[in-house]
Specification:
The chain has three domains: about 80 residues, Orthogonal Bundle (Arc Repressor Mutant, subunit A); about 240 residues, Type I PLP-dependent aspartate aminotransferase-like (Major domain) (Aspartate Aminotransferase, domain 2, 3-Layer(aba) Sandwich); about 100 residues, Aspartate Aminotransferase, domain 1 (Alpha-Beta Complex), CATH 3.90.1150.10. It is built from 16 helices and 14 strands. α2 packs across α3. The relative contact order is 0.11. About 40% of the residues lie in helices and about 10% in strands.
Length: about 500
């Protein structure tokens, strides 16, 4: 650089009140270089003159120059001055200068194909931000949770956290103590057959399904999905690139014969065999055997979402579908969100033996490991017998609330809604009277603080009569009776449209 080159005039923009002098000076000089207002080779004013002009300490100016030099914007030595660095044609300065001169259309980064599908398939919560007082979905009876017990176990685990290694990196598949507790508990209560090493801890059903979809499904693979079924699973599978094939559900669960005829060579089937979501039917033994036979015949996988089997109360539910699997085709999944509380964000799935190494490796890449402290508390909650006691209390409580809803609906609103036969589970379907639109009914009810999901929201291809899905679990008996009366008044006030479609 020429030691005699004249310094350029440095005009800086105004400084925002919250910005430090150092940050302001650095940003202004850097921006002038990037935009080409300070050309390559230009000599900056001395640190002393800048300090005098802008009334700042010379050390602040020197620090700004040092930052700019470290990032390659300027160069120079003591005694020779500071100059805008001459960069290669591919540098940021030259590229920016060329763009400013030519002003072509700017190239914008875009989402990947998978990213665009995710963006196109959000799972909105229609009650989010609303003052919902009755029948809130996906919510446990939080007032009945044994918080004192959980707090005591949490404190104990926290005191031992350092000694037990809970503050360090954990295992990709999850805390061994929790995996052992889950294997024992779900082996006793659901007949799940597995070793603790087959259990993979996740944040819940969505993450479990996402990991399985990544590992087992290629772009365009077809998946059987119950119709009607869980919309979040449908959205996730479509976002993963799978082609979702709706398979009708009747009183015996998913109709495997129709699935076989529609798409024999599907790669995976997603089912809720213990309590079909949202209709509440249990998958019959014959259908279970048919489903497993199909999977073995074509080399397909079955994803069993056992989401609320612990909370069934009408009669003893059939054991898990996984207990009948002899070919290693079933991935058993469950979550503690409904059993305990939603913010716990812990779930798991049982990987068939041949998948264990693959899912453990994939988990190590995608998330490394889940929170150790939460896992430790849950492990003690299960091992100490608190889980079984809590489940017994919740079955009684939810049974009473669902019974109250059924009785109130039969007594007070039979003219506008017929409740489906009583089933186990946390939701129940109410079939609407002739001509009532379920989407309009949902919207009108939500405006009055009542959440009743339209059944049409759960449908893939079928045409079903209009109905609402009600969730009484988080609403006490008095509020249930009041909510049913309010819902009846809302439904009677809706206009009657064309005849409802038949299934």
């Amino acid at each position: 650089m020429s030691k005699t080159a004249a310094s350029v005039t440095l005009a800086l923009g105004p400084r925002a009140p919250a910005v430090t002098l150092l940050r302001w000076l650095y940003d202004e000089i850097r921006l002038a270089i990037i935009e080409g207002r300070l050309a390559p080779g230009a000599r900056l004013p001395s640190s002393r003159s800048i300090a005098r002009q802008y009334r700042m300490a010379r050390g602040t100016v020197v620090a700004a120059f040092d930052h700019l030099a470290a990032e390659g914007y300027v160069e120079g030595n003591v005694g020779s001055g500071t100059f805008v660095r001459r960069m290669t044609p591919g540098s940021l300065v030259e590229v920016k200068a060329n763009r400013l001169r030519q002003r072509p259309a700017l190239a914008k980064p875009t989402l990947s194909v998978r990213g665009q599908r995710l963006a196109d398939h959000p799972f909105p919560l229609p009650w989010a931000g609303r003052d919902v007082r009755s029948f809130l979905a996906d919510r446990a009876a939080l007032e009945a949770f044994p918080l004192a017990t959980w707090s005591r176990l949490s404190a104990r685990c926290l005191r031992r956290a350092a000694a037990d290694g809970l503050l360090e990196h954990g295992e990709s598949a999850g805390l061994p103590a929790l995996r052992e507790a889950i294997a024992g508990y779900f082996g006793r209560t659901r007949g799940v057959r597995c070793r603790p090493e087959q259990i993979i801890i996740t944040s819940g059903t969505q993450q479990s399904l996402d990991l399985i979809a990544r590992l087992l499904l290629d772009e365009g693979d077809r998946v059987w999905m119950e119709d009607p079924g869980y919309p979040a699973a449908t959205l996730l599978l479509r976002a993963s690139g799978a082609q979702v094939v709706g398979v009708p559900v009747d009183e015996e669960g998913i109709d495997c014969d129709i699935g076989y005829r529609r798409c024999r060579l599907a790669k995976l089937a997603y089912v809720t065999p213990s309590c079909q979501f949202p209709l509440g039917h249990a998958l019959s033994l014959q259908r279970r055997l048919d489903l497993l036979r199909w999977a073995a015949e074509v080399g397909a996988w079955v994803y069993e979402d056992d989401y609320d089997s612990q909370l069934g109360f009408a009669d003893r539910p059939l054991v898990a579908l996984q207990s009948l699997d002899r070919t290693g085709s079933v991935v058993y999944s469950n979550s503690f969100s409904k059993m305990l509380f939603p913010s716990l964000r812990l779930g798991f799935f049982v990987a068939p033996e041949r998948l264990v190494d693959a899912v453990t490796a994939a988990r190590s890449v995608l998330q490394r490991f889940p929170s150790g402290l939460d896992q430790a508390v849950l492990a003690e909650f299960i091992a100490g017998g608190h889980m079984e006691r809590h489940m017994r209390r919740m079955r009684e409580l939810y049974g009473a609330r669902l019974e109250a809803l059924v009785k109130a609906a039969k007594r007070d609103i039979p003219d506008v809604m017929q409740i489906a036969p009583l089933r186990s589970g946390l939701q129940i379907v109410g079939w609407l009277a002739h001509g009532i639109d379920d989407v309009e009914a949902c919207r009108a009810a939500l405006a009055q603080g009542i959440y009743a999901a339209p059944l049409s929201r759960f449908v893939i291809d079928r045409s079903l009569p209009p109905a609402l899905v009600l969730y009484p679990a988080a609403t006490d008996v008095r509020a249930i009776r009041r909510g049913v009366g309010q819902l009846g008044a809302i439904l009677r006030g809706l206009p009657r449209g064309a005849a409802a479609a038949s299934s």
